[in-house]
Design goal:
The protein is α+β, with helices and mostly antiparallel strands. It has a single domain, classed as Sufe protein. Chain: A, CATH 3.90.1010.10. The protein contains five helices and three strands. A three-stranded antiparallel β-sheet has the order 1-2-3. A hairpin with a 6-residue loop joins β1 and β2. α1 crosses α2. The radius of gyration is 13 Å and the shape is globular. It binds FE2/S2 (inorganic) cluster. The site of FE2/S2 (inorganic) cluster (FES) has 10 residues, from α2 and α5. The site of FE2/S2 (inorganic) cluster has 10 residues, from α2 and α5.
């Protein structure tokens, strides 16, 4: 079962939707479940000043995306690159083992978005 923190994050997701002035976008998918997660970042002078997400994913994917976007806002791009899915899970106070892969999507999409920014700059 999902814990209270995950359910709250799922019911009240933050930073949902496309960030209109994003200058970096990362997409990650899981072939097994078919879910897709897209992260939008607005980066100024290597600092993430805003972040949002769109997903075709499950409860755990939405909760992970919501909390991960909150975790990276204010970080520099290298700190964001080092964000581990285990930190996302920790912030969500745990996740059922069979759902851990959903948090991996958030980590991967953030990494891809930062790489997108690095490639453009
Ligand atoms: Fe696919 Fe959660 S089951 S992201």
């Amino acid at each position: 079962m999902y814990n209270e923190k995950i359910l709250n994050e799922f019911k009240n997701p933050q930073n949902m939707g496309e960030l209109k002035d994003a200058n970096a976008i990362g997409t990650a998918g899981n072939a097994k479940c078919g879910d897709i997660l897209q992260i939008f970042l607005k980066i100024e002078d290597d600092i993430i000043v805003d972040a949002s997400f769109k997903t075709f994913g499950c409860v755990a994917a939405i909760a992970s995306s919501s909390i991960a976007t909150k975790m990276v806002i204010g970080k520099n791009i290298d700190e964001a690159l080092n964000l581990k899915n285990s930190e996302v899970v920790e912030e969500l106070e745990g996740m059922p083992p069979q759902k851990i892969h959903c948090s991996v999507l958030a980590e991967e999409a953030i990494k891809k978005a930062v790489e997108d920014y690095k490639n453009k700059n």
